[in-house]
């Protein structure tokens, strides 16, 4: 609700600058970030909360309005060759919504926000914008016209509408499409519920077909117990009477946990990697890591095995959530619900979270990983 990324308040206790964040990303071989945006803030060009930025140390940041702030952040990241995926994260400052429209922001309003992004940012000046995550976690919607949940909103139709609108203003950008969510699925002996944004089981048979070809990226989410305990991460599960996690459970050995993660990821969306017409970039993963309270570190192992899955042929990386140390999660273990925060940076916003960074460093082995731009600019003819 503050219309500005957190952490830029650099003072004698904590905080940072946009250039230090960009330098941190560059030093550790990150080549892209996913930047959450608010549709209403775009439409109103909301002025950022100036109390949350040290303008003396962030002199390159323009806080006249939301779009001015965004442009200056993009340029700062471009200086370190960091690309940006713009995520249509929320409709208003009130919090997350599971559709691309509601009573406060109509579908036309949302599309106007897309138009504003393409008209302002689709240029050589902002070369590092790679596209838009069309809507974060559209979990209220169904997948295709035959899905009962589509009576409220059909995300296949919505993604096509938004993606085509984006390409009408900027054909170069990629349309990142998340999955929706449903009640549950059974594969073999495993019954599981979709992570919000993770449901892409029907994406090959009921695809999102954009007018501009070869510009769609599937971008599902996959998390750990930190967000919500799942029975396939454990054995002998007994649910708590109050619904707050599990009353008792047994942690799985590595091979079983790894197998269960492979089965669920593959069934939700991983099968699409075999279809060479698609690209897959996991849109969110991670959560807690060092603050895992399980005796056998089930949360850490889940993140590690998720990364191993993402190294399989057909995946093209992912966006870890997130760099911010105040990013909050509900479950440090399956048996305890407690507000717990963690990010890639420690609370001072300057010190790397060593164990978490070591886990992320395994992604440096991704094939074809390289800094942007990936090719030299064409020389102008004399």
Automatic annotation (TrEMBL):
Organism placement in taxonomy: Eukaryota, Sar, Stramenopiles, Oomycota, Saprolegniomycetes
Alphabetic keyword roster: Carbohydrate metabolism, Cellulose degradation, Glycosidase, Hydrolase, Polysaccharide degradation
Organism the protein comes from: Aphanomyces astaci (Crayfish plague agent)
Molecular-function GO terms, alphabetical: hydrolase activity, hydrolyzing O-glycosyl compounds
Top-level division of the source organism's lineage: Eukaryota
Pfam families on file: Cellulase
Record GO biological process: cellulose catabolic process
Family as reported in the entry's similarity comment: Belongs to the glycosyl hydrolase 5 (cellulase A) family.
Residue ranges constituting the Glycoside hydrolase family domain according to the UniProt record: 9-298
Gene3D superfamilies in alphabetical order: Glycosidases
Record protein name field: Glycoside hydrolase family 5 domain-containing protein
